[in-house]
Amino acid sequence: TDFGERIPHIEVQYFDGSDPYKMHNYYTQLYNKLVFNVLQERFGEHEAVLFARSATAGGQRFPVHWGGDCESTWEAMSETLRGNLSLTLSGFGFASHDIGGFEGHPPREIYMRWCAYGAFSSHTRLHGSSSYRVPWNYDTENDTSASKALAKFIDAKHRLSQYIYAAAIEAHETGVPVQRHTMLEFPTDRNTYHLDQQFMLGPSLLVAPVFTTDDRDTQYYVPSGKWTSFWNPSKVAQGPSWIEEKVAYDDLPVLVKDNSVLLVGKSGFGKPDWDYNDGLEARVYELSDGASVEAFVPGGRSTEKAAKLRAERKDGKVHIKVVEGSLKGWSATLFAQGSGSHLSTVTAGDDGVSFTL
Questions:
Q1: Which residue of 14, 149, 182, 295 has the fewest CB atoms within a 10 Å radius of its CB?
Q2: H/E stretch holding 68
Q3: Residue 217 annotated as catalytic
């Protein structure tokens, strides 16, 4: 549902006599509701989805919304993130944007940074006005790094599909957005209140998009706890602290919060809608002594839940098991800094998996 926000209010008369000034914002609500209801009638309940550009209070019921026609600049990329955070802080469960910017033609460095950010948004779209936003347009015969980088990020998103789906169910049931401001997860840490260049994707992943070239340092903040790199689990940061580093174009700071159970699929699926309860890897990150953490596996339709896993640590042992539903061919990996179990992956048996620290 493109547009909807440019409804005039001067010298305009509505058929029912409505006040044109009051109708300006409400028009987009009617517009999105109409299309949403038509899609629901066509495809069935819980099957309708929009890609909407405008909204007002109450528009949260008709997702998804994206940021509109931004420029292809560093400033526009950072403005896009701030806009998405503002939207999701207003009760919208999902947020998207045009990767690379809509207007103009993004230079290679902006395009690659925006691809990384876009792949870890709730919804991912390559879209532009005067040029195609495909990565091979940025490749040469001797350098295919743009395509390889985007393939890496999209493969990671496919592997995280069930995690993002679970966050989408949470957004539907509670209103907590998929892409959320850091302070929503850490409300007592006042350092998080002003952070507008990073976000949490679901409850466990901290994502810090990069707004500069690969030869300059970027900074991001990690709240209290141990934070493990999603890409390189041997790299663990202790918070609260600021991290300053140079980031390659085919990389993106994605860190996993301690006391998390992150369920990931196999690499190379090539699509987001695979069988979520078959072949999962349960990654348990830096579980504290006495902690008990759960994660559920979506069933793949609506808000269905196929299984629930629980990880518990007690007396130097970590046990991971299915406590509801069932999983097929799953395994578990424990990430525990300084222990012999670090980076150990074990195929689950009937009683789950146990690690000794």
A1: 14
A2: none
A3: no
